[in-house]
Amino acid sequence: MRDLVIPICGLERLFENCLWAEGPAYFAATDCVIWSDIPNNRILQWVEGLGTRPLTTSSNHANGNTIDREGRLVSCEHQTRAVTRREHDGSRTVLATHSGGRRLNSPNDVVVKSDGSIWFTDPTYGILTDYEGERAEPEQDGCYVYRLDPETAEVEPVIKTMEKPNGLAFSIDEKRLYVSDTGVSHLAGGPHHIKAFELGASGRPESESVFAEISPGVPDGFRLDEFGNIWTSSGNGVQVFAPDGSYLGRIVVPEAVANVTFGGAKNNRLFITATTSLYAIYVGVRGATRRKSF
Question: What is the pTM of this model?
Answer without folding.
Answer: 0.96
